[in-house]
Write a structure and sequence with these properties.
- It comes from Brevibacillus laterosporus.
- Belongs to the nitroreductase family.
- It contains six helices and six strands.
- It is α+β, with helices and mostly antiparallel strands and 200 residues long.
- Helix 2 packs across helix 5.
């Protein structure tokens, strides 16, 4: 895991998406500090375009799980499942959502304007990556998920976001139980090239 003395480059290259966390509670002071610092992401609008909802109490996490499961029912995720498989999946989801110390939903403002919406999503993605890096610096594991429920208008409403906001992802935080190995990255020559002067 990351140490406070690491350089920014080492922090970026050592970070991992942590899907298996301990259920040890996280200090909310640390989460608030991470969010405050992450908000220094670049943005194009006059006001930062992101909004965050936190689920960390037992009641909040149970509600979050139930809304996710209801969303999956609503959008037909379980249509081909047997009752037995559906119950197993439901219990697995329940254990994950209720066992994860902190879950965060991050939404971005919607302007119904191509350029502004593009910039809004881009800024919010930068904010999310800041959160992940700041978590890693504090030895907190994070995974950024874009599961089907974040696109469900009813789920968005149940989470307290407005019709002028859309969810960019959910972040699930906790002290790592298992840290995955680094994924191999493409070599620079596979995706970097010079501008072709005079290209038609």
């Amino acid at each position: 895991m990351a140490e406070a003395t690491q350089t920014l480059a080492t922090l970026i290259t050592s970070r991992r998406s942590v899907r298996q966390t301990q259920n040890t509670p996280l200090p909310m002071e640390s989460i608030h500090e991470i969010l405050e610092q992450a908000a220094y992401a670049p943005f194009h609008s006059e006001v930062e375009p992101w909004a965050v909802k936190i689920a960390s109490t037992e009641q909040e996490k149970k509600y979050f799980f139930q809304c996710v499961f209801n969303s999956y029912e609503r959008i037909g995720i379980f249509e081909s499942y047997t009752d037995e498989k559906k119950e197993k999946v439901k219990e697995s989801y329940r254990e994950y959502f209720e066992g994860t110390p902190v879950s965060i939903l991050v939404a971005t403002d919607v302007f119904d304007h191509e350029k502004k919406d593009f910039e809004s999503v881009g800024a919010t993605c930068a904010f999310i990556q800041n959160v992940q890096l700041l978590c890693w610096e504090k030895n907190i594991g994070a995974v950024w998920r874009t599961n089907p429920y974040i696109f469900d208008p009813e789920f968005i409403k149940e989470m307290g976001f407005t019709s002028k906001q859309k969810i960019v992802g959910s972040l699930h935080l906790g002290y790592p139980q298992q840290v995955p190995k680094a994924k191999e990255r493409r070599s620079l020559d596979q995706w970097v090239s010079r501008v072709h002067v005079g290209a038609e």
